[in-house]
């Protein structure tokens, strides 16, 4: 009974409406007193709720003294609620898409995302937008494993190149359509080994410890950095052309100097 009440609530009925409708389905036909006793809804509220259900067409009323009430067939009621919910969902999407179009002028090329679901959804959208190749810099193989489903959806459509620090690729399960590379030595004009000194170790700033997990580059137009800050996973999405173009060039050069990893 509780499950039915909960599910009807998810479909749009108010709590008291769901309780009384479920009670009537079980009773078959009943007066207000029996409905009150079976549903647990306060008796003064039973009348209002019955009128509400009657207006929606979810119950029948038989005239007499006292009035008798019965439930309309559950499949009819649920079908109506589902259609109403679907309609509300479609209208919400249209309204939200209109709002999104209205705010495009305030579009930001750099933004942060936090929850695991939001990070995964944004990575899926990034992968869907790939037209040439996806470059991945992996510093945490567990993070890579979490997103195997996203890579699988790209298999056969576009190449994936994954660059690991030395010895990290050992033991990683092969990914369809992906090539593994192990970083070589790449120094910038300051003589710093960028990959080893900058990317693949934690960085502390003002009491916070930042640890990079993965970087994803879709062609040269979108990038996503997944990292942890004091153990909490976060991500940065970048679509600013100046940054993504530099990232794409830099990481392509890193892979050009890297060593291919045999995945067999």
CATH architecture of the largest domain: 2-Layer Sandwich
Q: From the structure provided, what is the oligomeric state, counting identical versus distinct chains? A: single chain
| Average predicted local confidence, pLDDT | 85
Query: What summary fits the major beta sheet?
Result: 9 strands, mixed
Class from helix and strand fractions:
alpha+beta
Write down the overall geometry: elongated
Q: What fraction of residues sit in β-strands?
A: 15-25%
In CATH, what is the homologous superfamily of the largest domain?
Endonuclease Chain A
- Give the terminus-to-terminus CA distance: 55 Å
At the third CATH level, what is the topology name of the largest domain? Endonuclease, Chain A
Strand elements, count: 12
Report the top-level CATH class of the largest domain.
Alpha Beta
Low-confidence stretches: 187-192
Q: Round the Cα radius of gyration to an integer and report it.
A: 29 Å
Count of structural domains: 2
SSE succession: HHEHHEEHEHEHHEEHEEEEHE
In short:
This protein has 264 residues and is α+β, with helices and mostly antiparallel strands.
Protein model, in words:
- This protein has 264 residues and is α+β, with helices and mostly antiparallel strands.
- It has 2 domains: 2-76, Winged helix-like DNA-binding domain superfamily/Winged helix DNA-binding domain (Arc Repressor Mutant, subunit A, Orthogonal Bundle); 107-261, 2-Layer Sandwich (Endonuclease, Chain A), CATH 3.30.870.
- The chain is 46% helix and 23% strand.
- The chain is built from 10 helices and 12 strands.
- Strands 4, 5, 6, 7, 8, 9, 10, 11 and 12 form a 9-stranded mixed beta sheet that branches. The chain has a 3-stranded antiparallel beta sheet with strand order 1-3-2.
- Strand 9 (208-218) and strand 10 form a beta hairpin.
- Helix 1 (2-10) packs across helix 2 (15-27) and helix 2 (15-27) crosses helix 3.
- The longest helix has 29 residues, at 74-102.
- The chain starts with a helix and ends with a strand.
């Amino acid at each position: 009974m509780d499950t039915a009440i909960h599910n009807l609530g998810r479909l749009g009925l108010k709590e008291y409406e769901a309780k009384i409708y479920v009670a009537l389905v079980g009773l078959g036909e009943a007066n207000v007193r029996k409905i009150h006793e079976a549903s647990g809804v306060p008796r003064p509220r039973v009348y209002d709720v019955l009128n509400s259900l009657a207006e929606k067409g979810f119950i029948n009323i038989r005239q007499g003294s006292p009035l008798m009430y019965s439930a309309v067939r559950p499949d009819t009621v649920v079908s109506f609620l589902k259609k109403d919910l679907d309609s509300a969902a479609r209208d919400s999407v249209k309204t939200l898409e209109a709002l999104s179009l209205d705010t495009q002028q305030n579009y930001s090329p750099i933004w942060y995302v936090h929850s695991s679901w939001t990070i995964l959804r944004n990575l899926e959208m990034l992968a869907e937008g790939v037209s040439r190749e996806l470059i991945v810099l992996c510093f945490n193989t567990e993070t890579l494993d979490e997103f195997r489903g996203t890579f699988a959806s790209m298999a056969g459509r576009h190449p994936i190149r994954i660059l690991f620090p030395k010895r990290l690729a050992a033991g990683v399960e092969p990914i369809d359509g992906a090539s593994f590379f192990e970083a070589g030595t790449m120094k910038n004009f300051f003589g710093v080994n960028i990959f080893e000194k900058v990317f693949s170790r934690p960085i502390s700033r003002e009491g916070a410890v930042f640890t990079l997990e993965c970087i994803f580059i879709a062609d040269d137009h979108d990038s996503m950095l997944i990292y942890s800050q004091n153990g909490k996973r976060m991500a940065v999405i970048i679509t600013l052309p100046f940054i993504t173009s530099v990232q794409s060039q830099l990481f392509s050069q890193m892979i050009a100097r890297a060593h291919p990893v045999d995945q067999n």
